[in-house]
């Protein structure tokens, strides 16, 4: 009789399905007056991502269940939602990181991100979010004659705004902001992050225009520095730091 190695036992345990209860905040505007919680028992592996569990509910339990998703690789930003009360991307969160200590059974709560109108289930209206994004002119602005060669940029110049180029417009930061919850007219962290990306780009001539846009009652000064946005960002962007740098640029008129 042979004895299984620890590695083999671990592999066996990995392939043993566990039962997970998904508690999902559902809302169908055609039949519901208010959102309500519904629970679903789903078989899963510890290595599954939350997005896999949502697919199980939609494919095998209730085809009317609505949520956004696209690439499923953590770079498109489509599947942002509240998972156990925290803004996350469903495709990046591993089930094993949410399991109870015994690793056998757990309950996971899933709800739409805050601050944006829920259209159905986890599907929210992103139009206000993208309106704020477009308002800060998220593109390179240059004046004068076109150069005869490419615009050269040093590595140090590129490093100045490298962090804010990582934004995938998932809205995790903006919808985690208490100011945005209470005042939807606030530009929000994501718009300011994307303004930062161009304000500090040495090739861009539109910094003053963007700073004027953000120097507004609903602009950068509404930030209360709660760090919710930084904690929520799935790409690890130092959102609060970027917002403070934009504030300093306004105060000292120096980029």
If you had to describe this structure to a student in words, what would you say it looks like?
The chain is α+β, with helices and mostly antiparallel strands and 255 residues long. It folds into two domains: 13-123, Ubiquitin-like (UB roll); 126-252, Orthogonal Bundle (Fumarate Reductase Iron-sulfur Protein, Chain B, domain 2), CATH 1.10.1060.10. It has helices at residues 6-14, 50-61, 127-135, 155-159, 178-182, 189-199, 207-214, 228-232, 239-252, and strands at residues 18-26, 36-44, 80-83, 86-89, 105-111, 118-120, 123-124. The strands form two sheets. Strands 2-1-5-3-4 form a five-stranded mixed beta sheet, covered by helices on one side.
CATH topology of the largest domain: Fumarate Reductase Iron-sulfur Protein, Chain B, domain 2
Number of helices: 9
Give the number of domains. 2
Q: Quaternary state, please?
A: single chain
Mean pLDDT: 91
Number of strands: 7
Q: Per CATH, which architecture of the largest domain?
A: Orthogonal Bundle
Provide the CATH superfamily of the largest domain: Alpha-helical ferredoxin
How big is the Rg? Answer: 22 Å
- Biggest sheet: strands side by side, in what order? 2-1-5-3-4
> Overall 3D geometry?
elongated
InterPro entries: 2Fe-2S_ferredoxin-like_sf (IPR036010), 4Fe4S_Fe-S-bd (IPR017896), 4Fe4S_Fe_S_CS (IPR017900), Beta-grasp_dom_sf (IPR012675), Helical_ferredxn (IPR009051), SDH/FRD_Iron-Sulfur (IPR050573), Succ_DH/fum_Rdtase_Fe-S (IPR004489), Succ_DH/fum_Rdtase_N (IPR025192)
Organism: Amycolatopsis ultiminotia
EC number: 1.3.5.1
Cofactor: [2Fe-2S] cluster; [3Fe-4S] cluster; [4Fe-4S] cluster
């Amino acid at each position: 009789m042979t004895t299984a190695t620890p590695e083999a036992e671990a592999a066996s345990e990995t392939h043993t399905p566990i039962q997970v209860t998904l508690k999902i905040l559902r809302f169908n505007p055609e039949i519901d007056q208010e959102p309500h919680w519904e629970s679903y028992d789903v078989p899963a592996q510890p290595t599954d991502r939350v997005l896999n569990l949502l697919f199980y509910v939609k494919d095998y339990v209730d085809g009317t269940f609505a949520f956004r998703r696209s690439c499923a690789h953590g770079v498109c930003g489509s599947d942002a939602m509240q998972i156990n009360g925290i803004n996350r991307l469903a495709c990046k969160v591993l089930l094993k990181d949410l399991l109870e200590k015994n690793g056998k059974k757990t309950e996971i709560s899933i709800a739409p991100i805050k601050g944006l109108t829920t259209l159905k289930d986890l599907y929210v209206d992103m139009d206000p979010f993208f309106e704020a994004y477009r308002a800060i002119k998220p593109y390179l602005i240059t004046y004068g004659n076109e150069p005869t060669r490419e615009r050269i940029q040093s590595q140090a110049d590129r490093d100045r705004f490298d962090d804010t180029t990582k934004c995938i417009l998932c809205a995790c930061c903006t919808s985690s902001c208490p100011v945005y919850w209470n005042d939807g007219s606030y530009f929000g962290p994501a718009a300011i992050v994307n303004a930062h990306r161009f304000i500090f780009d040495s090739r861009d001539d539109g910094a003053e225009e963007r700073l004027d846009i953000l120097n507004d009652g609903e602009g950068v000064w509404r930030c209360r520095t709660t760090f919710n946005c930084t904690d929520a960002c799935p790409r690890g962007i130092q959102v609060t730091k970027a917002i403070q740098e934009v504030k300093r640029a306004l105060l000292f008129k120096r980029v």
